[in-house]
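Entry:
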Amino acid sequence: MPSFRVIFGVGALRAGVQPPTVLPSVAEVVAGLTTVEAHSVELVGGEPRLVIRFTADDPEHALRIAAEADVTAGALAQVLSRRVLKRVGGRWLRIG
């Protein structure tokens, strides 16, 4: 099954949200829909990014999963950007 990543650039947290809860909450939503292979927080250019790697049947399925994750991420923090990538050979290519 193909591997995908959804990457959220996030800003300010919503009122009452504790930082350590954001990534696990978003990853949990994805895990309810498919297999989560990995998840992490990256800091790129001073911007925190949530990265969730998961499996999906095809790019359309991956985009639907990412949209569900986006709802949860947006409820917890300001979402500044969202990218969905597919693993092709040794590279990650943007889809959608």
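The longest strand covers residues 77-88.
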